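QA checklist item 7 of 12: single-chain prediction sanity check.
[x] sequence parsed
[x] length recorded as 526
[x] structure emitted
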Amino acid sequence: MSRPGFVLEVDDRTPPLLVHNGEGFLLERFPLGTRVVYPPEALPPVRDVDEAIQNALLNPIESEPLPELLRAGMRLTIAFDDISIPLPPMKKPDIRQRIIEAVLELAAQAGVDDVELISANALHRRLTPNELRDIVGERVFRSFFPDGKLYNFDAEDSANLTHLGQTRHGEDVEISKRAAESDLLVYVNVNLVAMDGGHKSTSIGLASYKSLKHHHNSHTMIHSRSFMDHKRSKMHESAWRMGEILTQHVKVFQIETTLNNDIFGGPLEFLQKREWEWSIKDQASMLGTKRALAAAPAKLRHKIFTDVRSNYGLTGVHAGKIEPVHDKTLENVHRQHLVEVQGQSDVAIMGVPFIGPYNVNSVMNPILAACMGLGYYFNSYRGNPIVRKDGAVILYHPVDYEFSQLHHPSYVDFFEEVLAESTDPATIEAKFEKQYAEDPWYIHLYRTSYAYHGVHPFYMWYWISHALDHCGDIVWVGANRKTVERMGFRSASTLQDALEMVSHSVGRSPSITYLHNPPHLLADVR
């Protein structure tokens, strides 16, 4: 049996606690009385994955079984989540591969021969052929990729987009033409956290900028409370409205999967455990890893972490109608991630790890570090933020001045030009977004290379709008001072220095909560 998450109060007996710090980690002693929120242990995985997949396809929720939806002469499109999830990537075979193969086998039995597979990457970068192969597997890749039947969605290919209409709020719904004109759209999802899945899969993953700008904007983001609670997230409300329009025109068979918290294994297994339960072997692994990382050159350190593959276990797979399927998905996600926390704190502390949704096989630039800490981790709550209004957030990450010119070209200009002018999301949106979104060079790189869309750094900055509005102080421990100052934050050398810096707003004896993740957790703040 896996143990649930819990809240520890630091006392004299508490050992130094591990804090993720980019491509490395620290052991930190926290002030007495600090609350430490530990994630639940990994839930037991489904025993027979293939049987679970077949059961979901043959016994879907509020839908005919998949074989009854398939017929000869039909147009079938299978869309799937891109490499932004799960994090870190999973060991082979990817669960999406196993589901896609099962769907294709049923399609072949029904005589369906017009099939296309689309990576639903919206304005994310295109996946390389090898990255596509890693998701769908060798057999599917060789059958579809050479003939152009397996490909990345292109949100700038106007000839292959279809406008389905507007929501009651005037939001445009424009998606992949192939998906829109299919007799059946099968969406294969990985729900790593509560934010994923539901109508967000189709109405965002297969959408153009014309659609995305209605919810990926500063006003919507600042009023999303939080991204992990779709009923209190303005972004999700918009996606759900768009989903209503989309499903009026397109028959969607949604397949959603949930994974457990089995993230770190092998020599990094100690990262899964509570510090006072480390064995002698765990302690030796921790010390050896820590020393090796400290001595390793940057490129080797980066390779060590980018090579991490997680042995996730499947905790559930459901298929059928989008809304009831997603309800089942959320039950599984909450069962794995939810930790009850009583009340808010004056200070929240978070360690930002080496990976986020937008630097897979790449580097975590300063904007992405901010997005991971102040966007994803800050929003990892249900009910209320872990930190009170006008409280302080302290984050750990080196925030080096490092950008990938291949993957994040517009990020460099955003950091140097836009943030030099303003860090206010609304001001940035009004003054600069249209220019970047329509820039022909950024569009060319998005369409022909492996670059995120020109508008993407704006979306990442809007992602932290809620935290910027809610928090009185934001301080980074051990970060590049010039880099964080450009983003409007401050840097401290140590935790004690950071607490001193925020004392003017939270006092000298603040209540403190440390979110001890990853593995993933969702703080249910009462």
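[x] summary fact logged: The first helix runs from residue 49 to 58.
[ ] second reviewer sign-off
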